[in-house]
Write a structure and sequence with these properties.
By secondary structure, the protein is an alpha+beta fold. Helix content is about 15%, strand content about 30%.
Length: about 80
C-alpha cells in the first residue's frame, strides 16, 4: 500500500499542526514530544514553527535543511481530526 501524502498543513497553535492527506483524512499532531530532541529545539520558537513548507510530493513538512517531519510520522502518531 502506498503511504498517504500530505496535501496541506496548518498550525492551530504554537505546538499543534493539522495535516491533510491525499485521502482527505486530517490528522492533528502535537510536536511537544519532539521538543525533547535537540534537533527539534528551534520549533519552540512560534515564528519558526509556523514557517514550514510541504516537501514536493507531500513526503514531509520541512522547516530547514536539518528539520523535517515525515508524512509517516504524522499519519502514525497524529490523531484523526474532524472539524465537525
Amino acid at each position: 500500500m502506498q503511504p498517504y501524502r500530505i496535501v496541506s498543513a496548518q498550525t492551530i497553535d504554537d505546538r499543534t499542526l493539522l495535516v491533510k492527506f491525499n485521502n482527505n483524512e486530517i490528522r492533528k499532531y502535537d510536536i511537544s514530544k519532539l521538543l525533547e530532541i535537540p534537533m527539534f529545539a528551534p520549533l519552540r520558537n512560534p515564528g519558526f514553527f509556523r514557517n514550514f513548507k510541504i516537501e514536493p510530493g507531500g513526503y514531509a513538512l520541512v522547516w530547514n535543511e536539518d528539520i523535517d517531519i515525515s508524512e509517516y510520522e504524522f499519519w502514525q502518531n497524529g490523531i484523526s481530526f474532524t472539524d465537525g
